[in-house]
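Q: Start with the shorter request: fold the first protein.
A: Done. Sequence, then structure:
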Amino acid sequence: MCEITKSQSFLNEGWQVMAQIRKRNWCREFLRENGPSTTQEVLNYIEKKTTGLGGATARSLGMIMKCDSMIRKIDKVTLTGETGVKYSVNLWAIKEE
């Protein structure tokens, strides 16, 4: 069994915080350039910027944007998937100052 030392745990937590900051900055960048967008559109942008190590899901990205003071949720949009099933996604934008 592998034990994690306090220093390894701290490094792992530090890496996760830096990853969230990086994703938050990419969300802001995308929304500034493209205006109001869905979580999935922002996620697609981030996936193109990363080398497969991004580890973002629509849910985790939504939580990052929800907690960001510069981003606001505008609305919830209902879309229809390829199989005809309807689902809701959030629409996000940069807050006006």
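Q: Next, the second protein, separately.
A: Sequence, then structure:
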Amino acid sequence: MQSNQHEGPDALIGGTRDMSRGLPLNRARRIREKRVAALQKRCRLAPLLEMYDLRLAEVRDQGSKNPEIDALSSLTSLFTGSLETIMKQIRAAKPEGIQLQNAVKRSAGTNFQGLCEYALIRWIDTTDLPLNVGCNAPQSMKDELTIYGEDVAGPFRVEPDIDISIWEEGGVPTSPLLLLSAKTSLADRAGQAARWKLYFDIHQATCPHIPDIADCPIHRTKIKVKTKHQVVHAIVTANIYKMNTEKPQGELESGQCRNNTYMFKHKYTTRMDDIEVRPEGWYRFTAFPSLVANVFGYTLTGL
């Protein structure tokens, strides 16, 4: 199996670096271990994680030099392959009508997020990166990542729509913070992530004309964010909608998708089958580890 991790705007340059971080590294490993155990205890997610572990073993047996990276190419196929098992679990609870629909949507969304998080932890565990991984924003950072502002209707607040966060153990208030929104559908479920990202980008704008233009959106909305972290926000999709149609790009070129993702520099898809066509600016999820390493200032051997 060929790895595609060199693809994308953050492909790594070869080299090595001593990444041993002593106590922070050990603490990060223990925290990740607890997170893996928590994910494995989720009854509707557990069958999917078992499928992933089997797939990872297959990739390793095929002689891959980076099996935990190459296995990222299987996440959409594993996700869709687990749907029948998950539906049996849902039906066993006997929900009806709208409750059934909501249970299916909720399980699909949280399972895809959990699968992505689990797979990334499995990869990070093969490195010496002292990184923590968690769902949502770290509890200690939620308030500082919440965006406050004003519009014609009055004050508003936008909490970060984050499905996976990665941060450095033992870091300082200005350390990098990598946020990942993981969505089964970008047309229907990426709106809140896009809103937070857009407001954050407005707040971070360095346009020299801002002080001189009273009608500038930055002045009108009075956007404030407390965080001092260097935030990088990426998005990943399973790209399962329109998958079995004449559209090999899935939903990636739909108007809704473009409207909800144009503000993201780092955009990934886990589908990666033989017929998928990715528009310009979209990359395979196997490129995401390179982004992780670049955000936190490391060069990983073997990529």
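Q: Describe the second briefly.
A: The chain has twelve helices and eight strands. Residues 1-6, 11-21 have pLDDT under 50 and may be disordered.
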